[in-house]
Amino acid sequence: MDFENIFQQKLTIRKSTDVKNDKTFLIPNVYSYSLLSPDAAAQQSLIRLLAGGNIFCENLFSYSFQPLDCYMFLYTYTGKGVLTVSGKTYSLSEHQLLFFHCNQLFQLHGELLPWSFKVFFANGERLSFFGELLHARKAPLFFIPEFSPIHTCMTQLLGLSTELSTAQFLIMQQQLNQILTTLYLDLQTEPAHKPARIPAYLIELKDQFDHHYELEFSLQSSQERYQVSKYRLCREFAAHFGEPPLRYLNMKRIENAKKMLLTSERSVQTISSMVGFDNVNHFINLFKKYVGTTPASFRQKASEDQSSLHSLSR
Fold first, then answer.
1. What residues are paired with 184 via a beta bridge?
2. 138 and 58 inside one domain
3. Residue range 237-278, pLDDT digits in tens
4. b (16+ CB within 10 A) / e for 151-171
5. 105: Cβ contacts below 8 Å, ≥ 6 apart
6. Residue bearing the bigger pLDDT, 114 or 101
7. What CATH number is attached to the domain comprising 156?
8. How many domains are there within the chain?
9. Of the given ranges (187-201, 208-222, 264-278), which has the lowest mean pLDDT?
10. Is there a single domain that holds both residue 185 and residue 209?
């Protein structure tokens, strides 16, 4: 039986608000190996990509799965999803990659919409080997910085035809092995326990974000200033403060922009510049991403709510 049929049999749609009652929603691409030579197709010890694709979810959904004989890779670009398994809940947040063995009951649902992510399902003996290596991690989640080679690997996988030739099969092996090797080697550099003492450079960087958020920031300049690699900086900042540095800074900027919108009559463009955004359109887009509405609409709604309160108090 092909993977698409197995996938649909194992999936139960728990609830949905709209058109996502489609059991193939998570597997827009299903891969076939009919074009491979018999010898290549027989290499069951290698990794076999089963299905996957780019997913953009604007509607609430909740899927429940029976055990599947495969692993799932899920990388979140924007928004947030939730994985529930064995009584534990994992937030699938931005810039995180889920590497999960689907051989158990689990649920998957969207939480912060729109949720944009890449997902791949794969199996094979070599994949099981990497699964055992990565099993020591307490949570099946990995923070993936923007400059990680894993992004290029996932893009290469999305570019494959659904009917793989021998050459594409080898490209698939190369990219999946690169992803898994990178995850394993990165895992070896993580401390077994979070150090009690926060490095001085992280404290300095956080202080800049908290009190001088309007200043320009780049990972490259911070790498040169602190003599710490960009990857280590992102990983350690997220480990100590819960978010990667750029997301933490953007949240601080948006938080202070909200205060200015509520307590002053400054224009949106002026506030954008004051909190550190030179491009007002970029500021508006980020504000809408984090708050759910544009700065102008946020100010207007707050004004209307305040007027309603005054009317009720009379």
1. none
2. yes
3. 888 887 889 989 999 999 999 999 989 999 999 999 999 999
4. bebbebbeebeeebeeebbeb
5. 64, 65, 66, 67, 85
6. 101
7. 2.60.120.280
8. 2
9. 187-201
10. no
Bridge partners of 251, per DSSP, are none
Asked if residue 195 is part of any domain, the answer here is no
Residues 226 and 300 in one domain: yes
User: Is the CB of residue 262 less than 8 Å from the CB of residue 291?
Assistant: no
Concatenating the DSSP letter of every residue in 104-162 gives: S-EEEEEEEEEEEEEEEEEE-HHHHHHHHHHTTSSSSEEE--TT-HHHHHHHHHHTS-S
30 occurs within a structural domain:
yes
Domain's final residue, options 133, 162, 189:
189
Within 8 A by CB and 6+ apart from 39, the residues are: none
Average pLDDT, the chain: 86
Tens of pLDDT, residue by residue over 73-85, are 999 988 889 999 9
Residue 284 has pLDDT above 90, yes or no: yes
Q: How many angstroms separate the Cα of 258 from the Cα of each of 51, 158, 244, 261, 275?
A: 42, 38, 21, 5, 10
Whether 279 is in a domain gets the answer yes
Q: Which domain holds residue 209?
A: 200-313
Q: Which CATH number is 289's domain given?
A: 1.10.10.60
Same-domain status, 172 and 215: no
Beta pairing partners, 75: 97, 118
67 neighbors 103 (Cβ within 8 angstroms): yes
More confident residue, 9 or 77: 9
Whether 17 has a pLDDT exceeding 70, the answer reads: no
